[in-house]
Structure formats: structure tokens, C-alpha cells
């Protein structure tokens, strides 16, 4: 285990030296102070993990020192040592945030094991904080790439609504980054320390989706052997992101509408309501107004979701961002593949900007990953672009976007030996969406 840095505070030099020798023999880095004044100076210039502190000191009390230090240095653990222990001091020390309170001499055999536990806790707290900072950075607005006017406008709107509990509807084509926006809104909100849960409504049948969202009681249906919380309950006090909400069966829409209106829902097989405090962010690549006209989406649910809508621009509407996005993906995939690819030539970038990118950022990301894999040079060149993309530049009608999409779906289905679930996963779409495209393009189910 990584050793920590220990500060010993005691006005008795002989005892301080003894403790220092014991702790140093365990491999810890030790500094010492005879009083609280010197200790504060050391804390200002040293990264201390654990403090071993006498209770009675010439310039103060160790119990009060805990109360002073913990709010400012939450990662430091403090073990109090006393020659005159009493219950009142012990209780107050723990209330103030001390790691433990032990007697000098009588508890010497406890000191080293206790010290190891305290250092382990400190290192764990620091690691958790580091990971949280990485998560916050990854899902922050600062991580949304682009300088175009349209993406900046979308970010500005998202930042404003993030400070509220307002329901948000994210609209835009597949691959425009709706979940990234949803996560950034959550992480910038007062709910950021609570759960963010995401669900793709197209990935489940009506019955399974109802159980996933609302949960069920034991015996509600065959196989329901015990109570199960739904995501809407699991996300209580946090945020629930429902992607492709346009795919939600209309029978479920009325039940979901009740959540938005009353903050209550009924589990499958239950007879009573459950209260919930959850923020809803929904997303769709469909025109919900058209879905309403066709009787596939409830107008009252739409108006509840449409309180604050943010339209995410397609990549072809922000082509000035393509070089920046492509360069970001290049760095990521070059590192993953251990290749020294330093940039892209002008022709490569020009061809990227000429592409329509029906799959938007997701499609661009896949194209750069493939180019990095193919490249054997220090710079990406036009010949590293996928054949399907290159062919589209000569104006050949056989490579119009619909034909390319149909062909790609057929290739993926052949790759998965007809497994629709696996194909949908590789395509980055829901199973329901895949079946709709199979019907739209008249692709045989056994393709």
C-alpha cells in the first residue's frame, strides 16, 4: 500500500520522538510539531495525510483543532492521543470529525493498525475525488467540441436551463450528441451529486419498457419473482434521460405523462402510487408534431416535454467544426492504437467537409477511427478515408445517402449473421429503429 505523510503534534519531545520512531519504522514519511502554531505552518506547505495530535497542547486543544482543520482539509484524517481520556472529550472529538480518539500508552498496540486504516481512507477519498473530477470534466459543457454559432447557441441554452429543474426536450438527428448534452445539463445542475440514468426507449418492447421505467411488484407477470425498482425511482433526486422518446408506445405515454404532472407513478402490478422527485430530460430524432398528426404521440405529453426545447445542429450545418472534431478523434484513436499520427493533410480535411455525414458526429468518429487504423504514415491522407465516403465525391447516384445507409445495414446484418439485436448495437440505434429501417428499405429479415 502507498505510504502516507504523517504529522505528529505533541509538546512532550521524548514521547513525540518515540512515536516518530515507531511510525517511521513502518515506512511512513513523518514530520513533527511541538504546538498548534508550528503545526499550522507545516500544513500550509506540506501535503499531510494523517495527523497524530495530543489533546492538551500549550496553545490550544486537540479536540478544537479537529473542528478547525476538517472543514478546510476534508482529506486529512486526525487521530487524537490523550493521557487523560474522558468520554465527553471523546464524543466531541468524533462529532468534530476525528478519525479516532485513543489513550497514550494503553492503546499503543492499536496505533499502527489505526494509522494504516486512516491512510487507506485518505487515499481512497483522494482517488474518488480524482475520478469524480475526471467524470465532471468528461461530461461538462467544456467538453462539447465546436466553435460554430449553432453549437454555441445550443450550449448557451443548455447552460441556462441546467440551473433549473425544468423538463428539457433535446431534438436533432441521430449522432448529434443528445446524451452528451443531457449529461452536461445534469452535471451543471443542483442534482449533479445524484444519479444520472439513461434509457433508450427504442431498445425495449412495450412491456419491458414499462417495467424498466416504472418497476414492478412481485407476481406482476410471469418471471417477476420479486419487487423491482424502475429507473424513475432509482433516479430519484437526480436525472432520468429518456432517449428516442418518440419510440415510446402510446399506451405508456399516458402513464409517463402522469409523472410529469403529479410526480407520482404506479409500478406494474401495484395498486398505490409512489412519489418521486426526478428531473426528466428527453430526446428524439423524430418530428413529434408529425407523430401527433399520425396518432403515434400524445399532444398533451408533447406540450409537457416541450417546455424547454434545444435543437442540436446536424454536422452538415456546422461544417466549420469538422476539423476540430476530427483532430480530437484523431488524438484519441492514435493514442489507443499507439500510432504517431500528428495530423491530417489538407485534402483529407477538405473531403471530410464535403461529406454529408448523415450519421453526424458518431459517423465522423467512426470514419476517423477507421482512417487511423488504415494509416501507415504520420499524417492522415485522403486514401485513408473509407471507400464509401470517397465514392460519394464523384456524384455517382449509386452512392446517394439512402443507398449507402441501406448497403451499410445489409453489411452489418451479414457480419452478425442476421442477429438484429447485435446489428442494432453496432449501428448505434435501437432494435425498433432497425426494424423500421428494414421495412423502409425493404431489406429481407434474413439479410
Q: Separation of termini?
A: 55 Å
Level of helix content? 40-55%
Oligomer: single chain
Q: Quick one: CATH class of the largest domain?
A: Alpha Beta
> How many discrete domains?
3
Task: Sum up the structure in keywords.
447 residues; alpha/beta; Rossmann fold; Helicase, Ruva Protein, domain 3; five-stranded parallel β-sheet; 19 helices; 15% strand
Account of the protein in words:
This protein has 447 residues and is α/β, with parallel strands linked by helices. It folds into three domains: 5-135, Rossmann fold (3-Layer(aba) Sandwich), CATH 3.40.50; 141-313, 3-Layer(aba) Sandwich (Rossmann fold), CATH 3.40.50; 316-440, Helicase, Ruva Protein, domain 3. Helix content is 47%, strand content 15%. It has 19 helices and 18 strands. A five-stranded parallel beta sheet has the order 2-1-3-6-7, sandwiched between helices. Strands 9-12-15-8-16 form a five-stranded parallel beta sheet. The relative contact order is 0.07. Residues 391-399 have low confidence and may be disordered.
What is the secondary structure topology, with strand pairs?
Elements: E1 5-9, H1 13-25, E2 29-33, H2 36-45, E3 50-54, E4 56-57, E5 60-61, H3 62-69, E6 77-82, H4 87-95, E7 100-103, H5 108-138, H6 149-162, E8 168-171, H7 178-187, E9 196-200, H8 206-214, E10 215-216, E11 228-229, H9 231-234, E12 239-243, H10 250-262, E13 264-265, E14 274-275, E15 279-284, H11 288-293, H12 299-305, E16 308-311, H13 322-336, E17 343-344, H14 346-354, H15 360-374, E18 379-380, H16 387-391, H17 401-415, H18 420-427, H19 431-440
Parallel strand pairs: 1-2, 1-3, 3-6, 6-7, 8-15, 8-16, 9-12, 12-15, 17-18
Antiparallel strand pairs: 4-5, 10-11, 13-14
Helix pairs in contact: 3-4, 6-7, 10-12, 13-15, 17-18, 18-19
